[in-house]
Fold:
Amino acid sequence: MVFTSTAFFLFFPVAALLYYVLPMRAKKPWLLAVSYFYYMYRAPWYGILLAYCTLVTYLAGLALAKQTTEKRTRRRALVLGLVLALGMLAVFKYTDFAVQILNQILSLFSPDHLLKEPGIALPVGISFFTLQAVGYLIDVYRGTVPAEHSLLDYALFVSFFPQLLAGPIGRAKALLPQLRHPRVPAFAEAEQGLLYFLWGAFLKLVIADRASTFVDTVYGGFAANGYAGSVIVLAVILFGLQLYCDFYGYTMMAAGCAKMLGIELAENFRAPYLSGSVQAFWRDWHISLSSWFRDYLYFPLGGSRCSRARTYANLLLVFLVSGLWHGASWSFVFWGGLNGLFLVLEKILTPAFRRLTNALAINTKAASFRVLRILVSCAFINFTWIFFRADSLSAGILMIQRIFACFGPGEIAGASLTSYGLDLPNLAVLFLGLLILLASDLCKLRGKRISSWLLAQNRLFRELVIAGTVVLLAVVGVWGGTYSASGFIYFQF
Structure:
């Protein structure tokens, strides 16, 4: 059930209103019931997977909680829980990829005896709730959180519907206490949640869905239609912005729904495109996943507490795993490795860069220098997005070849831009939306939020702004020629 679908607009008001009026003892069972209904809406058998992951990690957590358990036994309980939970994810996500790799090897020796790919469909959300449950299990093993003895509370933690399909990935320390003691939010808090949801809808409907029209046209036909390299570059940049607005939009809509239920979700984006370095970009992009890999993979590998060579190897391994988590294909693995390589090079070159700026007396705090750093880091990040979006690794390489072979800057001037799926009014709306996003991110960097300012205004003014935003989204978003109740990009991961 997609946040922008008619089904959700019928589902959520009923779920929220009954949550408000039900007695306290019934609130958690109700949230759990609507969470499972939400997840099983697309495919009823999804509920079996969710229940399996919940039960396996719940029982493993109880085994870890026993005070009399020896260290070796606790480690076995942890490993068993991880294998059973991650094994389910591996079966659904990587079986086809494993068969493809095996067939590539077999083709060298016996090309007539290749294996048939099973064609296993990836259940939506499985990567996210599995990592959330695994993170809880590791926290219990480390002793940073106590094991949850209430199956109801733990099941709600794993399945809480606003974040279920694409995060943000919750931590037990922050989310479980809120779910143990549900509450009805104050009117101002619910109103803030509505503002979050509307902002997310703006990012998705006005920016991301429009950008996708241009991006899909170019990525789908650059080879057959001989598009100029400048058009491909613009499509790559717009894809990065589409991905940002699509996922950031989902996160804000999820945070808004949760806030309207009295639950605070973790922040997932902090203006990453204004960060100024590859390292800072990944610190501010998909924060819940980046911090998950940092805490549960990078640190256990030794992090930066070991030799430089080992630190760089740890970074590369983490990004390779991150690429594989995003998708079972070589293009995603290459994308992850490329980001890891850029991050390692940045770490290696930073000391020399600092000495150079000091020697040349360059003011690194000047706005012009900051803008230059942002442009350079965005260039590196957008280069990697080519492989994230391309249909295959070979298609990504072909796009790069096309960029350098025939750049053609005149192809992105004037009316020629309307040849790629968007007419002039929709192009104007897209770029106006991007300017609004830029203003919002600049405010965020300065510690200011437009929603906080709006909530400080008179109630009549706030309600007029909300009503106007709803009308704007209806006219420009839903009826603007680009609307479809399709899923968000990160649903496929």
